[in-house]
């Protein structure tokens, strides 16, 4: 299973998020709005394969820390979609 990072996966990339999830990839999805993250994830074929990260992209320390944690937990990213 590939591990893919999607930055902004609840907006314009929502369709890409659902498509990649349907291909049974592990997704780490970053977005600002926790409710939108939950909504997009629940609409996926395999919602348990989604790692949801709610944060403000402008906080570089928080962004770096969450990305590093996701890679430690699920392995290196094989693709980044932004």
What does this structure look like?
By secondary structure, the protein is α/β, with parallel strands linked by helices. Helix content is 40%, strand content 23%. It has a single domain, classed as NAD(P)-binding Rossmann-like Domain (Rossmann fold), CATH 3.40.50. The mean pLDDT is 96. Strands 3-2-1-4 form a 4-stranded parallel beta sheet, with helices on both faces.
Ordered list of secondary-structure elements with their pairings:
Elements: E1 3-7, H1 14-22, E2 26-31, H2 34-42, E3 50-54, H3 60-74, E4 79-81
Parallel strand pairs: 1-2, 1-4, 2-3
Quick take:
The chain has one domain: Rossmann fold (3-Layer(aba) Sandwich).
Name some characteristics of this structure:
Rossmann fold; 82 residues; globular; alpha/beta; four-stranded parallel sheet; 40% helix; 23% strand
Residue stretches low in confidence (pLDDT < 50, at least 5 long) are none
**How many β-strands, per DSSP?**
4
Structural class: alpha/beta
Strand order of the largest sheet: 3-2-1-4
What do the pLDDT scores average to?
Answer: 96
CATH architecture tag: 3-Layer(aba) Sandwich
What profile does the largest beta sheet have?
Answer: 4 strands, parallel
Rg for CA atoms: 11 Å
Q: CATH superfamily assignment? A: NAD(P)-binding Rossmann-like Domain
CATH class: Alpha Beta
Count of all domains: 1
What is the 3D form? globular
Q: How far apart, in Å, are the first and last alpha carbons?
A: 20 Å
């Amino acid at each position: 299973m590939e591990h893919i990072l999607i930055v902004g996966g609840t907006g314009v990339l929502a369709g890409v998020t659902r498509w990649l999830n349907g291909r049974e990839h592990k997704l780490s999805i970053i977005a600002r709005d926790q409710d939108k993250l939950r909504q997009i994830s629940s609409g996926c074929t395999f919602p348990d394969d989604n790692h949801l990260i709610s944060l403000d992209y402008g906080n570089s320390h928080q962004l770096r820390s969450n990305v590093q944690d996701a890679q430690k937990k699920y392995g290196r990213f094989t693709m980044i979609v932004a």
